[in-house]
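R.M. (postdoc): so does anyone remember the format we settled on? I'll just put the structure tokens first.
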């Protein structure tokens, strides 16, 4: 595959990383930059996806679930190549691969990954950053799936986790749930305790890989009893 007039778009929430990508692409004579912006909605509304061969898409998107964005982009342009740029791996790797993503770059190794991506793209070969090799091997070599862990969270805490799993910021969660930033932080801490995790990435992975319901457990004569909360 020849890199002649390869039409590239950048949809990344970070101005710093967009500038890095722009500088890289500006040095490549075979690149034509179609779109460079923060908001995927502008990219979609402007019909830029139909004009794009390859879109470099950040894992985090303002106000939208990135996995839903991938579906929407492929519906609008089934032949578009989506290169997902990952910072924290907010979504479990199997969920990403199930979307047909075969190009996965790491923000912490962006320059090298971009160059390796183009080398593989030229050969029509997939490219997944070496930073995710262990995750990929674990996925390939994993044993029979274990039963999903069961957790119960209060309603507001559950909704906080649900929005966090969709990539929303603390400020956006506070606005959506009509509560203060301190309340959001309180529920985030409660999530960590209830799920037995220490960071957002692990919490989101638990959300996707465990059975989490709205409710609490009360001890009743040595037996655990589920008490459902009103929703």
């Amino acid at each position: 595959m020849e890199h002649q007039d390869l039409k590239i778009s950048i949809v990344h929430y970070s101005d710093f990383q967009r500038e890095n990508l722009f500088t890289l692409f500006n040095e490549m004579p075979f690149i034509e930059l179609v779109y460079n912006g923060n908001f995927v909605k502008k990219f979609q509304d402007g019909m830029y996806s139909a004009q794009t061969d390859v879109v470099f898409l950040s894992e985090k998107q303002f106000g939208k679930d990135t996995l839903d964005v991938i579906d929407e982009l492929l519906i609008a342009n089934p032949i578009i190549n989506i290169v997902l740029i990952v910072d924290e791996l907010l979504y479990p790797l199997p969920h990403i691969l199930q979307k047909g993503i075969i190009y996965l770059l790491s923000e912490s190794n962006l320059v090298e990954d971009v160059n390796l991506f183009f080398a593989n793209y030229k050969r029509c070969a997939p490219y997944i950053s070496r930073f995710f090799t262990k995750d990929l091997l674990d996925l390939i070599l994993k044993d029979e799936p274990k039963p999903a862990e069961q957790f119960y969270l209060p309603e507001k805490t559950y909704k906080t986790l649900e929005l966090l799993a969709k990539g929303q910021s603390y400020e956006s969660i506070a606005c959506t749930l009509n509560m203060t930033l301190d309340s959001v932080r309180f529920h985030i801490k409660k999530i960590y305790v209830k799920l037995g995790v220490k960071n957002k990435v692990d919490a989101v992975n638990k959300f996707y890989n465990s059975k989490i319901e709205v409710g609490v457990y009360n001890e009743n004569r040595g037996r655990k009893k589920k008490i459902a909360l009103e929703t």
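R.M.: ...and that's the designed sequence above, right after the tokens. Also worth knowing: The CA atoms of residues 120 and 198 lie 36 Å apart. Confidence is low (pLDDT under 50) at residues 219-225, 227-231.
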